[in-house]
Amino acid sequence: MGELTLFVRFGECDLRCLWCDSAHTWRPAERCRVETAPGSAEFHELRNPVSLEAALAACEGLDLAQHRFVSLTGGEPLLQAAAAGALARTLRARGPRILLETHGLLADALQLVLPHVDVVSMDWKLASDVRRAADPKRGAVAPFHEAHERFLARAAAAPEVVVKIVVTPASTDAEIDEVVERVARTHPRAVLVLQPVTPCGGVREAPPAARLLALARRAGKRLNDVRVIPQTHKLLGAL
Asked: FRET pair for 131, CA 20 to 30 Å: which of 9, 19, 24, 66?
């Protein structure tokens, strides 16, 4: 947080988070936007799919070498693992560190990208607020814990790993305790981020500060690096 970062957003996602602020990325789009200058909020459009060469040119046009990180985000970049891996490898050779932002479920696809990544930032989804695209729209859904733990076991080979839990009023203590226990036994050196949701989509309010502090204290008994960090892109108005 706070580092100069260039964001490359991949389209398509196979999850449906109730609080998602990027629902336009859930499905393929005919065109994408490229910012014309850093922070300008002015864009030109390219037709999808964008070639590797065009993506690199877009990054160079945004002062690539001046950025500490390039974030590969989404949607879900690992749904296009070959393209994400090629882009990560090429961009990393030009200077910036590579941050992979992922929903943390596609462990096999991770293998194609992991050799070219400096930081894996994985979400740990809670079934209280997240569904698979194939799940029914109502009723309970299967938890994500097993798939996340498999992913984390592979991600542990990366130089740095961050596990993020978006905390909403619907998130249960039992869910979060389960995440903490699995992280502690699988990759205890990982950073755990508790991120209070910014109301969006189907989520109308954020969890209170007292609850976040209590969760952080409890998680800190099992993990060495637990942080409470808000959604800073929302604070900055950058989506």
From this structure: 9
Question: Which residue type sits at 115?
Answer: P
Q: 144 phi and psi, to 5 degrees? A: -105, 0
Give CA–CA dist 215/227, Å, rounded. Answer: 10
Q: Other C-beta atoms within 10 Å of 13: how many?
A: 20
- Domain with residue 158: its CATH number is 3.20.20.70
Q: Which of 182, 191, 189, 197 is nearest to 233 (CA)?
A: 197
pLDDT at 236 over 80: no
- Give a yes or no: residue 4 inside a domain: no
- The pLDDT tens digits for 136-148 are 999 999 999 999 9
| SS3 (DSSP) at 130 | strand
Residue 136 belongs to what domain range?
Answer: 11-236
Single pTM value for the model: 0.94
Q: What percent helix, strand, coil does the chain show, rounded to 5?
A: 35, 25, 40
> What is the DSSP-derived secondary structure letter of residue 27?
S
Q: Would residue 31 count as lying in a domain? A: yes
pLDDT in tens, 178-210: 999 999 999 999 999 999 998 887 888 999 999
Considering the domain boundaries, does residue 2 fall inside one? no
Total number of domains in the chain: 1
- Count CB-CB contacts under 10 A for residue 67: 20
Answer whether 88's CB lies under 8 Å from 98's CB: yes
Distance (Å, whole) CA 26 – CA 95: 30
Residue 40 tokens, joined: 């300008």
Q: How many residues does the chain have?
A: 239
| Alpha carbons 161 and 204: distance in angstroms, whole number | 30
Residue 73 lies in a domain: yes
